[in-house]
Amino acid sequence: MGFLTDWLTDWIREMLAGGIMGNLGGLFDNVNNRVGEIATQVGMSPGAFSPGVFSLIRTLSETVVLPIAGLILTFVATYELIQLIIEKNNLHDLDTWIFFKWFFKTFTAVLILSNTFNIVMAVFDVAQNVINSAGGLIGGATAVDPGMMAAFEAELMTMSIGALLGLWLQSFVIGITMVAINICIFIIVYGRLIEIYLLTSLAPIPFATLSNREFGSMGQNYLKSLLAVAFQGLLILVCVGIYAILVQSVVISGDPIGAIWSLIGYTVLLCFTLFKTGSLAKSIFAAS
Fold it and tell me: Most exposed residue of 20, 122, 151, 213, measured as fewest CB within 10 angstroms of its CB?
């Protein structure tokens, strides 16, 4: 009778341990895959991420938005010429050199406007070069170590049935949490790329105002926002590097339940910090 009881206890323990490992293993695999993709995604240029979308954005920018920006530049240049003329004692003290100044500024503005898309892509090329260089320095595997999960399974086999049942019930809560985190990571990484495309599509309009002192704040704020979004990828990569170090520092032996919740906590922390990278990048570059 004692043999049958021991066999039944071991069978229940193995069943609960297997269920817990199945739940946690699959969940961490999904998050590990998503986190592992972050470094790859933030290191891609807008053209490499989706050539079809990139071509669409470029066509819209050059054929739809650029003519509107040309009208804005015409208004800005005319307004600035009028201001240059009337500020010289209402035409009583007029210097001919101001026309050369106006011509040079207008020529420069037209040159910048006609190369807006190339300038924007140059900003992202510089940012991607920095991100790719940082990717080689920020090392460490982002995934939960398979050996760690094996040690956790061994710890489970030493626990009582009651404790295993409680941990099995907790796995449902963990499952909901990890699925939500997986979705959040997806939204943050891909949302940044969509924001890049949106900023690029309207680039000619703020660029048309850069040459004027009064209207130039629009173009300056745009450039700040552009730099913030471009270098947000570096902050995302730093978050992933910190997450990798924290995950690898978790010790399973002695307190397996606490270790698993530590992994969950670090993943939640990763999600929170990824959300903060956008506002942090804007504050660094003083983008409104």
Answer: 213
